Amino acid sequence: MILKDISEAKAELSSLIDAVSNGEEVLIGNAGVPVAKLVRYIGTPTRRLPGALKGRLKIHDGFDDLPPDLAAAFGVEP
Predict the structure, then answer these.
(1) Residues 3-61: tens digit of each pLDDT
(2) Do the Cβ atoms of 2 and 16 come closer than 8 Å?
(3) What phi, psi does 15 have (nearest 5°)?
(4) Domains in the chain, start-ordered, CATH in brackets?
(5) Per residue in 51-62, pLDDT tens?
(6) Is 26 exposed, middle or buried, given 0-12, 13-18 or 19+ CB atoms closer than 10 A?
(7) How far apart are CA 5 and CA 13, in angstroms?
(8) Residues 6+ apart with CB under 8 A from 32
């Protein structure tokens, strides 16, 4: 991990981008306190499709029923 002050990061941005491209992480600090992290961009994740697991999951009868002691702890009538 590389730690640079803001002024150093401004002056060395190209080399820091190269380091990040090679898998390094760069912390940018202000007066020695880290305020930002520069990491490699890996792209946006694929969108989730609703219903992708339709027909593959089964919720059993009684799934929503709480045991009496747990229902009492939550103040719910069993």
Answers:
(1) 999 999 999 999 999 999 999 999 999 998 999 999 999 888 888 889 988 999 999 99
(2) yes
(3) -70, -30
(4) 2-38 (3.40.1620.10)
(5) 988 999 999 998
(6) buried
(7) 11
(8) 5
